[in-house]
């Protein structure tokens, strides 16, 4: 039998078949995937083959289909071991807010860089527009331009006023979307507004209930009645910028990627080199300063100093 992993809570995985049946599955003993050091060999979004055991809805996972992509988080900054958050994703949707709470562009760009590394398209939703005063409206206009010029889909929403939720639905339809964002930006409210039967709040309460038992929170996939599914990642604050090296960061900024082949030196880091086409593009207003600053932040993050060697592929 074959199905998609929709939930993983340690040793047990929920696997949904095409027929819509859910099976509780365990991994076959000493199950390993070559080349991946991970605390969880199988993650939400994986397509697995399994055999039924014991009772009718319990199974043993025998195989895993090759992944299109996967997003990981490292257990600790220095750890070589990573945790796979989700696999086989069609797009990453970042829910951000300019106020209550304020999401930094650094956070947005780190997630986009991670998604770019796996060629996963990014969507940015700026929620809570109902709270915007002139200042935020002005900021939003700038950010919409920065990110749409860079090639990302940007949607401004208010869950409270039910504004632009139809656009969110259209973007999610028939895709597997990983939803992320700081706590409090309205992820649950958004999901409940477009799919009321999911009622994500209720689930949060039961999670708190089990706090002592689970120190890690787990991703979970939910089907959408209008087609497609979302992967919710409660408690996951940051994705690991792993699996690629420092000299590949600029390529993960699509608007920088457009210019970097024109740099005088082909090992240009776009920081101080003469004849840098990226810096010229910034001066000409073709690459935004905010994105470039975040590029520099990622480039100079001491994270790279410590872990680069371990993660160079
Ligand atoms: P999550 O932590 O990202 O899942 O955020 P929640 O969905 O729990 O929402 C956090 C708070 O923001 C709740 O009090 C929501 O009612 C509120 N909220 C969500 N969307 C909006 C919005 O568009 N406008 C306003 N004003 N509040 C919102
Ligand atoms: Zn350059």
Q: What would your notes on this structure say?
A:
By secondary structure, the chain is of the alpha/beta class. The protein has helices spanning 105-117, 134-149, 165-172, 187-194, 200-209, 254-260, 277-283, 289-300, 302-311, and strands spanning 2-9, 12-16, 22-27, 47-53, 58-64, 70-74, 82-87, 91-97, 122-127, 153-156, 176-180, 220-223, 229-232. 34% of the residues are buried. Bound molecules: guanosine-5'-diphosphate (GDP) and zinc ion. The site of zinc ion has 8 residues, from helix 7. The site of guanosine-5'-diphosphate (GDP) has 15 residues, from helix 4.
- Uncertain segments are 202-216, 304-313
Give the total of beta strands.
13
Q: Could you estimate the helical fraction of the residues in percent?
A: 25-40%
Helix- and strand-based class? alpha/beta
Q: How can the largest sheet be summarized? A: 6 strands, mixed
**Number of helical stretches of at least 4 residues:** 9
**Element order: H for helix, E for strand:** EEEEEEEEHEHEHEHHEEHHHH
Measured distance between first and last alpha carbons: 34 Å
Categorize the overall geometry.
globular
Strand order of the largest sheet: 10-9-8-11-13-12
Rg from alpha-carbon coordinates: 21 Å
Bound small molecules, by name, code or SMILES, are: guanosine-5'-diphosphate, zinc ion
Instruction: Report the mean per-residue pLDDT as an integer.
Output: 85
Strand content: 15-25%
